[in-house]
Specification:
Layout: H1 10-92, H2 96-113
Length: 125
């Protein structure tokens, strides 16, 4: 007697192509997901690079602003020193014209009070 093959149900002959198609679809989905993972990783790297560049640019900008601020403060400080020097020079310096008038005024005041500011030489009268 020959070996009999089991009878294949009719539903299996219909389901086999569907199962095969499902496997193909599953393989396609997996390969698509792998490609998406690669693109997602690339996008994250690009985003991280962009954030680093933005942070570097911000730091450079803040450094430049700080440098400008220091230069401005330094200029104001030197201007203040120069203004103080000029003011003190004008307030406390005695210029030639003033010293001539001041010496004549002090001499007259001293003579009025009976003091002799400039001692006359022995030969002078």
């Amino acid at each position: 007697m020959g070996e009999e093959q089991p009878e294949v149900p009719a539903s299996e002959s219909v389901e086999r192509p569907w199962a095969s198609n499902d496997k193909l679809q599953f393989d396609n989905a997996i390969s698509h997901a792998k490609r998406l993972d690669i693109w997602a990783e690339y996008a994250l790297q690009q985003q991280q690079r962009h954030v680093e560049q933005m942070n570097d640019q911000k730091l450079r900008h803040e450094e430049e602003l700080h440098k400008q601020k220091l230069e401005h403060e330094n200029a104001l400080f030197h201007e203040k020193l120069e203004n103080n020097r000029y003011t003190l020079d004008r307030l406390y310096s005695v210029f030639t014209e003033e010293s001539v008038a001041l010496s004549a005024l002090l001499n007259a005041a001293a003579n009025a009070l009976g003091y002799e500011l400039v001692k006359k030489g022995e030969g002078e009268d």
